[in-house]
Design brief:
Number of helices: 8
Low-confidence stretches: none
Shape: globular
CATH architecture of the largest domain: 3-Layer(aba) Sandwich
Distance between the termini: 46 Å
Number of domains: 2
Structural class: alpha+beta
CATH topology of the largest domain: Trna Endonuclease, Chain: A, domain 1
Number of strands: 11
């Protein structure tokens, strides 16, 4: 069975155990991945009932980063549900529940005790602040870790249709405070929360404090958009493919 991104991230962190950045990258992969949770019974609508294993160290649920790995573990078809890692962590946090990931079927086989899930949920729950201060200057971004730029690029590349683009800039506020801002242009209605979560994940798992980056949402005709385009680092978000035009009249048969 081929290695997954979680396998590779775990192996990288194990090869350099003192590198906290690689450990963060591993947790980021877990939070971003689609995980397959073993269930007690088939899901009913959106209601799922994870199968709980009562162990000496406390209750545990099992998840795998592929359907094949889940089937390899169970040895026969079993009910399961697919959830983003983030959603699974948020569901288990605060419940005194542990998580077994890829147990016995992959090099990334790991046990997440409740305190680790609580920590990870806390990392995911933080939000960057939406900019409210009056800005007096914009400049190209500087001094940001490469890991943050890579994480932003990867996460925004998965936010199809939620905004047209985003610009990363260095800022100076009227108070003299300096910082950085990620400004989204033409965000889809209601997409602000999802975009803010994507930015937060990039911050949390790059080692930068949540307060180190503000977010803003602009329309394309906002006067600041031109200045952002001039000095900012641009991230293009993928756009939905428009539907093929319908043929005029009934189709021709051959």
């Amino acid at each position: 069975m081929s290695e997954t991104l979680i396998d590779l991230a775990w192996q990288a962190s194990e090869a350099a155990p003192e590198d906290g950045q690689l450990r963060l990258a591993y947790f980021a992969r877990v939070a971003e991945a689609e995980l397959f949770i073993l269930l007690e019974r088939e899901a009913e609508g959106e209601t799922i009932d994870p199968k709980v294993f009562e162990l000496e160290d406390g209750p545990l649920v099992l998840a795998f980063d592929s359907e094949d790995r889940l089937t390899e573990f169970t040895g026969l078809p079993a009910p399961y549900a697919a959830l983003p890692g983030r959603a699974l962590v948020e569901m288990l946090a605060g419940q005194g529940m542990g998580l077994g990931l890829n147990l016995g079927v992959a090099p990334s086989s790991r046990l997440f005790p409740p305190e680790v899930l609580d920590w990870l949920a806390g990392m995911l729950a933080e939000r960057p602040e939406e900019l409210t201060a009056r800005l007096t200057g914009l400049a190209p971004p500087r001094g940001l870790p490469e890991a943050l730029l890579t994480a932003l690029d990867q996460r925004l590349a998965r936010m199809e249709g939620l905004a047209r683009m985003a610009y990363l800039v260095a800022t100076e506020a009227e108070s003299g405070a300096r910082g950085h801002m990620l400004a989204f242009v033409e965000a889809a209605p209601g997409a602000e929360a999802a975009l803010a979560r994507a930015v937060q994940a990039a911050l949390a798992f790059s080692g930068l404090e949540a307060g180190g980056l503000d977010v803003a949402f602009l329309t394309a005709d906002d006067p600041r958009a031109a200045e952002l385009a001039r000095v900012g680092l641009r991230f293009d978000l993928p756009q939905p493919t428009p539907p093929a035009p319908r043929p005029e009249g009934p189709p021709r048969l051959r």
